[in-house]
Sequence to fold (325 residues):
Amino acid sequence: MTSSGRAALAVRLTQPFRQFAQWQAGGAVVLLVAACVAMALANTAWHATVERFWETPLSVGFGGTAFSLSLRAWISDGLMALFFLLVGLEIKRELLVGELSTMRTAALPLIAALGGMVVPAMIFWSANRGTDGVVGWGVPTATDIAFAIGVLALLGSRIPPALTVFLVALAIADDLGAVVVISVFYGHAPDPDALIAAGALIALLVLANASGVAWTSVYVALGIVLWYFVFRSGIHPTVAGVLLAMTIPARSRIEPEHFVRETRERLQDFVAATENDGRAVLSNEGQQHAISAIEAASEDAQPPLVRLLHALHTPVNFFIMPLFA
Fold:
């Protein structure tokens, strides 16, 4: 079989998987399947074995320093920070150019989220006042945002886009509010040194944004350090994902007119290289140079916020959320 034939076969074999990954509800299906598997295991003799597995410690270290958490904590405190980064980026985009770009449209989900926290807490408090269980009033304040978004994705086009944005914004605001409640009322006393370090990193991220730094890798590296200090501070570490999302640049490095001009010139170079040298791209330096220039121009035209959204979509929906479930 020729190389072109093998490439065509590979495309045909992987097409169903790529289509499933691009399907909006695909992640929700995997999430619900994972939840069903978890519920089934919880009601079998395997339950204790699974619990022991999730409590297995996993350490990350360098030299004589080690940072250790259980597998469960790495998922709920570590990987879920990436989930909150993703939804934070979605909300930032909506605040800038979408359904939440005006105070009038943004106020409603925020007010609804506040009511969704206060009312369940008051009901719980009134039903348990005078008992030891009253201290659990913070438990019903949270919306399980992962499953809420999963259900919305399953419904797909049956829900108007404006309603989807409203419900997602409500769920996120509600969940973030609950994280703050848990951190303030149920966590240990914050570590002031870690808080100062986290604040300095946030200031550095804001400065990088204001200075026009558009390399996504810079924000990812600083975000990892920010997560560590937020974790050490005693605040729920998923907050770091939202804080990082607010600092990711939403502007392009080049204007659309420059991108159009650059890609047209490079396409002409590609055609010329093809006509002058009949070799395949692998050995055609002219074609390779033109493709690299188009790729660089495309990266400059795409805001870091959008690039990070696209990069996070598949791992969050098909790996992190099912693990969380």
The chain has 13 helices and two strands.
